[in-house]
């Protein structure tokens, strides 16, 4: 009998309408953008499924530490449920709650094995009249509920236990689908809320990876070059295991020093060469060779922009220009800082059409300067403008700007942009920026208005 039960469930599961389930998933995901609430309801075992699904929407759908969905199960508040059933009728227990809490545009998800429960049918009718998106999980032949809903998925079996199993499988399939899609949906991960909502007067931006994508792939130039240099330092051809160790060493120190001037990585390379018995070399020689290789790597991108074969937006982090314009319209002064040589930063900012937004100045590295340029910039902002760090907000994908902003008492937004796919979060960046002490993490500036509202205390950051 047990095997026969599993067989019936399996056969019914094979009939699941995956097209409809995907439609339901996207309707749920859309509530992140619209700010709509999600309500669920059911009776008996279906009430348990409705409650379970809300648990999954709130907790199970969290991605990269960001908020889940604004979801409520109408079955969970037992005092409210019994009050409404006692004072009105059991048929109205869901409608009465929707009259108080729901709005047009919200989503109502109803679970019913038969598709004929009176309180579920009334809720479906009310939700449709209110302008809610009504979704149903029904069973058997769909019952009267199927015709009352915008979207309905049916468990095609007559056994109630089997229907309830199938509904829970449907819900879990939605959760795994939604969670994967949310990786590329815009949202803010909040670690610390801004202390001075609306009080920012100065904004500091990193350049490469935060604003510009022209140098995307630079690690693919630097790391192999450094490995090649270290491999030659010992005088003997390294084994595969030794090459693997060299790769780990180079990747680690390049990552740690990302955000500082290139010379610091080259200085560390010189140290590693000498550890392995190689000669001391002026780090600027390493830097010159790296920049030569990098120039070859990005030359065509520059040429395409100059010749009009590419547009600046092709090499800008999504939404950054619109965000600059919004901040400028609010009288926030913008600064641009980079570990790249200053002449190159200015030239590339002009090539991308963003130099005009940085009325505070554009700052980069100089060969004769060993101190971190970004630290100089932050100190300059504070000193020359006589401001407190609490008036400063920074945006960057490197350790330096995060750590220095926190040190001055400012608010640090990590931009964990995926430079290759140009959407979603780069998990490697996210982890290292969180370890640097970032107050919030955003994938880019695509929802520039939502990001601004969050920073000014007018939004909770739960949007994409």
What does this structure look like?
The structure is a single chain. The chain has 464 residues and is α/β, with parallel strands linked by helices. The protein folds into three domains: 2-182, Glucose-6-phosphate isomerase like protein, domain 1 (Rossmann fold, 3-Layer(aba) Sandwich), CATH 3.40.50; 190-213 and 316-455, Rossmann fold (3-Layer(aba) Sandwich); 219-306, no CATH class. The protein contains 17 helices and twelve strands. It has helices spanning 2-13, 18-34, 45-60, 78-87, 93-101, 118-130, 160-182, 219-233, 240-257, 262-275, 283-306, 320-329, 342-351, 373-385, 399-408, 427-435, 448-455, and strands spanning 38-41, 71-73, 107-111, 133-139, 151-155, 189-190, 202-206, 333-341, 361-365, 392-396, 411-415, 440-442. It starts with a helix and ends in a 9-residue tail after the last helix. The chain is 50% helix and 12% strand. Strand 8, helix 13 (342-351) and strand 9 (361-365) form a beta-alpha-beta unit. The longest helix has 24 residues, at 283-306. It has a seven-stranded mixed β-sheet, with helices on both faces. A five-stranded parallel β-sheet has the order 2-1-3-4-5.
